[in-house]
Specification:
The protein contains 8 helices and 34 strands. The chain has an 8-stranded parallel β-barrel with strand order 10-11-12-13-14-15-16-17, surrounded by 4 helices. Strands 27-34-33-29-31 form a 5-stranded mixed β-sheet, with no helix packed on it. A 4-stranded antiparallel β-sheet has the order 3-2-5-6, with no helix packed on it. By secondary structure, the protein is mainly β. Strand 7 (100-103) and strand 8 form a beta hairpin.
């Protein structure tokens, strides 16, 4: 690949499933983003009855439009099979042209440009939709992650839905595609280890052949926290799997997520091209001195360690990125991000992990705003430490179980706490920040690496406006953030992420339901039950509120608000028309919203 041209390799297996031999003509056409044909090939081959032939062809694309996280340029290959001059079969394949490299000196390079991986781990579920995969749901998750500064996602611990990878291709999101959470030794009685011996090769091949044309995928992962990684037999298995991956696709490195990083796992690491470190940023320097050629990255890191984890990435070229556990919250591993381990049955009704940067409804949690200041300039947000724990804590919690974040909220509505002292945390990547309470300055403070991009104030509660102002080096205001005291909720506000959807029986619109006071300020303490009705060619396929201890139905047309809001997911039907959503709650003014479904 160069600025003037790129070589595109096209491999096609053509099967003659008839009882007669055939002379096959294979034509490949490369179409650019504007729909213009920019290259083509044509080959002819005699294929015997009930047999197959592998075509391997190269074409040159002049002045290629490169795929990157900033410009997700996609080409299309149209492959046509002709038998005796008649079209027998055709396939369209989207792909991208890009160059990747990894080494311990320069790190990860995309199209000759060094890049650090700002990553998050993903489970498969789509929040209130459960494990169902709608194309729009997959796209939305990628959109939200990218908007929060992420440029990479690790699929944990199984291959994702095809629509998810297509979204990453079209939006410019890098991906680690992962197979297996265990090999021959299991973590649960009936998990994949029961099938590994007979199925690993078929399943790995299936993943590789299905996904290899996605430009978003930059690494293949062969496993996560595999039991016995310090055993020679497990290291041998790692080499077998890694070599098998390379035999099918040698264009991407092989990685795996290793927990409990130690010298005893060097043999396991030696099977990998890029080494995944789970919760081991304290090993970056010592392991580099021992193994200077080793390329490292955090396949998992704690939210609470966000600062030191990211500084480890910035400071060491051999550390190429950091993937927080997790980018998006999920159903399961209940209370991981609050009560942690050890877990007990008494933790019920916890049912969400509560550790994601983005909650199951798609709203940013405080840790996501903190990550903003680590990754972007001139970011600013205000959070208030609660006067008492939001949920009961676990007195037996293990010290290493820190998937939680500080117990803070974006709330300045504390009736009954007048004059009580509140700890106010300012997350800021501005040079300085100044906090105002009802236009009275509470002083300026620096926010930089030495302060971990945070300023802390102790503020006596008085209702009104809490405002943070961020300044640059020249004292110019570059950002402001405000919390206002909310009054009693009087109104329901409905806002849809998309008011126009396709009438294809699967498109979605996500509607945020805010409970606001007469000034339009969301009341973060409101927990009113909201009822929904829908008219027209659409249905409600999910409701949610991100409350990790709520056991309300995700399917019923009602949901309590939590922190002043809840979510409704509307799915289109097969017919076009206007979909009307009505929301009502006792004591509040009702509201309705119209969504247009069209062909």
């Amino acid at each position: 690949m160069s600025a003037s041209s790129a070589k595109v390799n096209i491999q096609s297996t053509i099967k003659n499933e008839t009882s007669l031999p055939a002379t096959v003509t294979l034509i490949n056409k490369i179409i650019n983003v504007k729909g213009i044909e920019v290259a083509s090939t044509s080959s002819k081959q005699y294929i015997a009855a009930n047999s197959e032939y592998d075509f391997n062809e190269n074409v040159r694309v002049k002045s290629p439009a490169l795929w990157s996280t900033e410009n997700a340029n996609l080409y299309k290959a149209i492959t046509e099979v002709y038998v005796d001059g008649r079209l027998s079969d055709n396939v369209e394949t989207k792909f991208g042209i890009r160059k990747i490299s990894f080494d311990a000196v320069n790190g990860f390079i995309l199209n000759n440009k060094p890049m650090k991986l700002k990553g998050g781990c993903f489970h498969i579920d789509n929040g209130p939709l459960g494990a169902r995969s709608f194309d729009r749901a997959e796209i939305r998750r990628v959109v939200l992650m990218k908007a929060s500064g992420f440029n990479a996602i690790r699929c944990t611990h199984n291959p994702p839905a095809p629509a998810f990878l297509e979204a990453c291709d079209s939006l410019g999101m890098l991906v680690i595609d992962e197979a297996f959470d265990c090999w021959n030794e299991g973590k649960k009685a009936d998990d994949y280890h029961v099938y590994f011996k007979d199925w690993w090769q078929k399943d790995l091949q299936s993943m590789l052949l299905r996904d290899r044309n996605h430009p978003s995928i930059i690494m293949w992962s062969i496993g996560n926290e595999i039991p016995g990684m310090d055993k020679p037999s497990v290291a041998d298995t790692a080499k077998i799997l890694a070599d098998y991956v390379r035999s099918i696709d040698h264009t991407r490195p092989v990685t795996a997520a290793v927990v409990g990083v130690s010298n005893q796992k060097d043999a396991f690491f030696s099977a990998l091209d890029v080494c995944g470190y789970n919760y081991a940023d304290n090993k970056y320097i010592s392991d580099h001195w021992r193994k200077p050629g080793r390329i490292m990255f955090a396949t998992e890191s704690y939210p609470l360690d966000a600062f030191q984890s990211w500084m480890g990435v910035l400071d060491h070229p051999w550390v190429i990125g950091d993937f927080v556990w997790t980018g998006f919250d999920y159903i399961g591993e209940s209370s991981l991000g609050w009560r942690g381990y050890p877990q007990e049955k008494t933790f019920y009704p916890w049912n969400l992990a509560y550790c994601g940067d983005i909650d199951i409804c798609g709203w940013k949690r405080p840790q996501s705003f903190y990550r903003d200041v680590l990754w972007k300039k001139n970011q600013l947000s205000i959070f208030v430490k609660q006067p008492h724990p939001y949920f009961p804590v676990n007195p037996k919690k293990e010290p290493w179980s820190i998937w939680n974040w500080d117990d803070v909220v974006d709330n300045w509505t504390w009736k009954g706490y007048e004059d009580s002292i509140f700890e106010v945390n300012i997350y800021s990547s501005c040079e300085e920040v100044e906090l105002f309470l009802n236009n009275k300055s509470l002083g300026r403070k620096p926010t930089n690496r030495s302060t971990k991009f945070m300023a802390v104030y102790n503020v006596p509660y008085t209702s009104g406006e809490l405002k943070a102002v961020g300044y640059d080096n020249n004292g110019k205001i570059v950002r402001t953030s405000v919390l206002n005291t909310a009054g009693k909720p009087t109104q329901i506000n409905l806002s849809a992420d998309r008011k126009m959807i396709k009438a294809d029986n699967e498109d979605l619109s996500y509607v945020t339901v805010d409970l606001v006071d007469k000034k339009g300020i969301r009341n973060p303490n409101a927990e009113n039950l909201v009822h929904f009705q829908i008219q027209g060619p659409g249905t409600i396929v999910g409701v949610g509120n991100a409350n990790p201890v709520s056991v309300e139905s995700y399917q019923l047309p009602e949901r309590k608000a939590w922190q002043g809001r809840c979510l409704v997911i509307i799915k289109s039907g097969k017919h076009p028309g206007k979909i009307i959503l009505k929301a009502t709650s006792v004591g509040l003014n009702p509201e309705q919203l119209t969504i247009d479904a069209h062909h």
